[in-house]
Amino acid sequence: MNNLEATTALLVENSLPEDLAVKWKQLIESLQGLGTAVVAYSGGVDSTFLAAAAHLALGNNMAAVFLQSEVMAEGETARADQWAKMIGFKYIKLQHAVLDDPGFVSNPVNRCYVCKLGVLGKIHSFARENGYRYVIEGQNADDLQDYRPGRAAVTETGTLSPLLEANLKKAEIRRLAQALNLPVWNQPSSPCLATRIPYGQQITAEDLKRVSLAESYLHSLGMGDCRVRAYQTLASIEVTPDKRQQVLDLSERILDHFKSIGFLKITLDLQGYRRGSMNEGAV
Question: How far apart are CA 172 and CA 266, in angstroms?
Fold first, then answer.
């Protein structure tokens, strides 16, 4: 029994719903049809699952490329390294100085498009130089419900989105990842740190570092899904409703830490944690 057959047996053993088993089969067949591919890899749930599936489907004819840059939250690079080593797919790490791009630093409403275009351009260059035919990335069916200017960059560069093509939703990807014993299955989402800066406010290395340290501290307190939005030196904390009282109970500790890293005012967003809150009223 080869690795793919063993994996399919594992999914059956885990009582995968029939409709999800069909999507898994569709995904594997589409990946096998590519022949060779590079995965745009971030270490998040979607791209790690996609890299694992591509590794099963293509073996050594795939590579996962990780671009290390200033917009990565603390610990993300180490986590991406860890998952790649644990799962065993071919892994390439490149440097990407995104803050050298004035179009990104100015933080326009289509910032994600500017960023994605640069990232995918670099990965496509790697693919061409190393004989890979396709570049694939991890957008899923749920991503169509949010403002995603980066989607245009995916289309313009000819990058493929196999999870989206298989109509896989986030919860289904987590379910498959769990059945495959992938360690990322319950990992919280962590988009790039630039999403914590309001459109029009220039993105600086200092602001990104401050946000990263603030969120890491909240995670250390057990806050789970949370965000720290940085309006210059004002921090707006978003947590899930069940964690709101915990923030208040620990407010003195949080204030001390946030002020020590450069925030002057600290607020708690009463609407709580939600994806894309910086898009509200801006797009």
Answer: 36
CA pseudo-torsion sign 201, 203, 206, 207: positive
Distance (Å, whole) CA 263 – CA 256: 10
Q: Are 163 and 46 in contact (CB under 8 A)?
A: yes
C-alpha Rg value of the chain to the nearest Å: 19
C-alpha–C-alpha distance, residues 164 and 85, integer Å: 26
- DSSP per position, 11-43: HHHTT--HHHHHHHHHHHHHHHTTSSEEEE--S
Per-residue pLDDT at 256: 98
In whole numbers, what is the pLDDT of the chain averaged over residues?
A: 91
DSSP alpha helix (H) spans, 33-191: 45-58, 76-87, 102-105, 111-129, 150-156, 162-165, 170-179
Counting as low any pLDDT under 70, the low residues of the chain are 1-14, 147, 276-283
Residue 79 · residue 48 · CB < 8 Å: no
Phi, psi of 262 (to 5 degrees): 115, -5
